[in-house]
Design goal:
Helices cover 37% and strands 22% of the residues. It is α/β, with parallel strands linked by helices. The strands form 2 sheets. It has a 15-stranded mixed sheet, with helices on both faces. A 3-stranded antiparallel sheet has the order 6-7-8, with no helix packed on it. Strand 17 and strand 18 form a beta hairpin. Helix 11 crosses helix 12. The two termini are 27 Å apart.
């Protein structure tokens, strides 16, 4: 494999495809690896995104996995490293964003980096250090009810400082609007003040394009996927359709949804309202009867010839809390993830070759169960959600996958995803 320009470490699988999709849109040829590759990749690409499942594991384990990914990327010759987390900055006072960032900085021998989860195109903006989801601060959005990483403070300087040893500062929107030279000057000033991580404001995609040149040569960038749109130009790369080419799709179509985010609940409701064939996975039934998932998958598979089917555990926050109260948070999550992964495998065994998966944890479980170790990234269905192609031993060949972060996608996402795939050149 030729020396790669950008080496990326993502803390979940949907986030990895979100980042990879933005890099492809900018013209980079991208491969996404599921976990740290065991050897060199065969493809000649501009960027490699290593997808980990480290967002909600203990911080020390997340650090260990991230450093292993970094070692592979450095061995592959990556000229810059990008640590990608969610645009809603999913974390707790214990981490994992702060501890992983500082471990990567130490390993790379750098004393300064940025943190910027902004993705204005998807409604994530940072203003004076406060993260907004749509029109409301993060702590007033649906993220306040997240079952694993509830976000109760929108001030990213405070959030990052609580989980970091070094000082955290701010590059505000006025500096960003002034352009790359002003941004670099602010970086230098913060360094002199002893700041090691700078939260960067961004209220428009134009801000991200202004930020991109200021990051040229920075050993480590930490961000959501949005910052990626301004990086490709640093290597003289421009948008090109061939960067997103995928093999032609075939087979049956299905959606597996484990996310309980506001956006995904709306997408499930829209699919149901349109008369789609949908089958609900019941966590309580699953805990009482291990065969519940297989029975549901068999029923769903019988409808595949009639069009896309949806198997979902998506429900409202009150129902999630009730199940967690009965089963425990970790057991409830693990049961549902494992069950949806088995459902996905069963559907692929029955001929599904176009599969949408909603939810980061669910996506991680599904791709691992399918034996997928590498994804080729194609065009986006909606911002942050590209179609991908992968070889799966369960499929006995190629399967097309769309790994959707819970908070991403329009309300009609499940209805339009397959039409978009068929229309791509």
């Amino acid at each position: 494999m030729a020396t790669i320009r950008l080496g990326c470490i993502a803390d979940d699988f949907t986030g990895a495809t979100d980042l990879a999709g933005n890099l492809v849109r900018a013209g980079m040829r991208v491969v996404q690896a599921i976990g740290v590759p065991r050897g060199p990749l065969e493809e000649d690409v501009d960027a490699v995104v290593i997808a980990l499942k480290s967002r909600t594991i203990p911080a020390d384990q997340a650090v260990t996995q991230s450093l292993a990914a970094l070692a592979w990327l450095r061995n592959a010759g990556a000229r810059q490293v990008y640590f990608k987390y969610c645009s809603t900055f999913d974390s707790t006072p214990r981490g994992n964003i702060g501890p992983v960032t500082e471990a990567l900085m130490e390993a790379l021998g750098t004393d300064f980096t940025i943190a910027c989860p902004a993705f204005p195109e998807n409604g994530r903006t940072v203003y004076k250090g406060y993260l907004f989801a749509g029109d409301v601060p993060l702590d007033e959005s649906g993220m306040k009810d997240h079952p694993l990483t509830p976000m109760n403070d929108a001030n990213l300087v405070r959030v990052m400082q609580a989980q970091s040893k070094g000082r955290v500062g701010l590059v505000d929107y006025r500096t960003v609007a002034a352009g790359a030279e002003a941004i670099r000057a602010r970086f230098d000033a913060l360094r002199r003040e002893g700041v090691s991580v700078a939260i960067v404001d961004a209220i428009s995609d134009a801000d991200l394009h202004r930020l991109g040149p200021a990051l040229a040569g920075m050993p480590l960038v930490t961000a959501g996927s949005g910052v990626a749109i301004g990086l490709a130009a640093n290597w003289g790369i421009t948008p090109a359709a061939q960067a997103a080419s995928l093999p032609a799709p075939g087979g049956f179509r299905a959606v597996v949804s484990g996310s309980c985010s506001v956006a995904t609940r709306g997408q499930v409701a829209a699919f149901l309202a349109a008369g789609g064939r949908a089958f609900a996975l019941d966590a309580r039934a699953l805990s009482a009867d291990a065969s519940h998932a297989e029975a549901l998958a068999t029923t769903a598979a019988a409808s595949l010839s009639q069009g896309p089917v949806l198997v979902y555990s998506t429900t409202d926050p009150e129902a999630v809390r009730a199940v967690q109260g009965q089963l425990g948070v970790e057991r409830a999550g693990a049961l549902v993830e494992a069950a949806l992964a088995r459902v996905a495998c069963h559907l692929v065994e029955r001929g599904v070759r176009q599969l949408v998966v909603a939810g980061g944890e669910t996506s991680g479980a599904v791709v691992q169960a399918l034996g997928v170790d590498c994804l080729r990234i194609g065009q986006a269905i909606d911002p942050g959600v590209p179609w991908c192609a992968a070889r799966s031993p369960v499929a006995g060949g190629t399967v097309h996958l769309a790994l959707k972060s819970g908070n991403f996608g329009s309300e009609d996402f499940f209805l339009k995803a397959f039409d978009r795939l068929a229309a791509f050149p």
